[in-house]
Amino acid sequence: MIELAEDKKRTLQFDTGSLSKEEVEAVLDSLPLDISFVNKEDRVKYFNKAEGRIFVRTKAVIGRKVQQCHPQKSVHIVNKILEAFKCGKKDVAEFWITINNRLIHIRYIAVKDKDGKYLGTMEVTQDITGIKKIEGQKRLLDWKT
After folding, report:
1. What is the 3-state secondary structure (H, E, C) of 34-86?
2. What is the spatial distance between Cα 36 and Cα 48, in angstroms, rounded to a whole number?
3. CA pair distance 55, 41, nearest whole angstrom
4. Cα–Cα distance, 136 to 128 (Å, whole number)
5. What pLDDT does residue 9 have?
6. CB neighbours of residue 130 within 10 Å
7. φ/ψ bin of 113: left (φ > 0), alpha (ψ from -120 to 50), beta (otherwise)
8. Minimal CA–CA distance to 51: which of 122, 107, 134, 127?
9. Which entry of 5, 6, 21, 45 is 20 to 30 Å from 97 by CA?
10. Which of 117, 114, 34, 38 is nearest to 81 (CA)?
11. Is 54:99 a contact under the CB 8 Å cutoff?
């Protein structure tokens, strides 16, 4: 449960701790992924400002129907995903594509409350080119001081 504390810092109280608005925003923007959230009415409500964002967003998309943010040729797929999430048939849809010699992993995830009620959809996009090259183990820090 998230509750807004009544102090000047506008702290969000979670079940597992608390963060200020500034900390939440910094954490989300520091993730090595692009995140976008579309509410249950299919409207873009949020996106993080990750460094090196793969799919650039501007604030103009906030409030726009998500179908208007995709190429016309893929809107039927977007609608199929959203319909499956809303009726509870599916919770995740995954794709991977190559853009400029980079392997991009795209996940759409149904976001639900504790009772399983659909709240919206989160899109998570990540460049996994470097991750795919990982082999063996790396157990020691190799920073040059």
Report:
1. EEEEEECCCEEEEECCCCCCCCCCCHHHCCCEHHHHCCHHHHHHHHHHHHHHH
2. 7
3. 22
4. 17
5. 60
6. 10
7. beta
8. 127
9. 45
10. 38
11. yes
- 57 pLDDT above the threshold of 80: yes
Residue 5: pLDDT band with limits 50, 70, 90: very low
| Contact yes or no for 85/110 (Cβ under 8 A) | yes
- Tokens 């967003």 sit on residue: 57
Q: Which H or E run contains 21?
A: helix 21-30
Cα–Cα dist 123/57, whole Å: 13
Q: Give the residue among 20, 23, 55 at the shortest CA–CA distance from 36.
A: 55
The encoded tokens of residue 45 equal 């409500």
- The pLDDT assigned to 56 comes to 87
- Write down all domains in the chain, each with its CATH number in brackets: 1-30 (no CATH), 33-132 (3.30.450.20)
- Scan for tokens 């009726």, then name that residue: 87
